[in-house]
Design brief:
Order of helices and strands: HHHEEEH
Strand order of the largest sheet: 1-2-3
Number of strands: 3
Shape: elongated
Radius of gyration: 32 Å
Number of domains: 2
Strand content: 5-15%
Length: 146
């Protein structure tokens, strides 16, 4: 749990700060912000409201900058991917080949699929079978792999 002075509301914080300032401690915007767990803009507002004299360099904290607008994520709609085997993962289309026993999808990203065009097609190939065992095992037509 945070220290009690980090959980104070504005009025309690300012009353506590008056006692701290009167104790003769070195008070700056940085130390106030650290002591009470607030940002430096709030520390500036509190100290000026208490009438504490601040140096000219502290004017930097007088005006809080406007919030930066967040980039909106556009979720994929059903019209984008009508097949239920496609999902959007990290903003990229992902083909779900299956799910692990824990429920996590496995598959391939759409932009990685062009790499598969370069691979030769091997019918009836079990990718989970070791190469030496695959060579000795006939496929369903009775032919041995080469």
């Amino acid at each position: 749990m945070q220290p009690r002075r980090h959980r104070m509301r504005q009025q309690q914080r300012r009353q506590s700060a008056l006692g701290w300032i009167q104790s003769g401690a070195t008070v700056t915007i940085k130390t106030y912000a650290r002591r009470y767990g607030v940002d430096r803009y709030t520390a500036y507002q509190d100290l000026t409201a208490l009438g504490f004299p601040l140096p000219a360099s502290a004017q930097h904290w007088a005006h809080r900058p406007p919030p930066t607008p967040r980039r909106r994520c556009t979720p994929a709609t059903d019209t984008d991917y009508p097949d239920t085997d496609w999902i959007v993962l990290d903003g990229r289309p992902y083909f779900v080949a299956g799910y692990t026993p824990g429920g996590f999808p496995y598959g391939i990203f759409e932009d990685e699929m062009h790499d598969l065009d370069e691979l030769p097609y091997v019918p009836d190939c079990d990718i989970f079978m070791p190469d030496d065992q695959r060579a000795r095992t006939p496929d369903r037509r009775g032919h041995h792999a080469q």
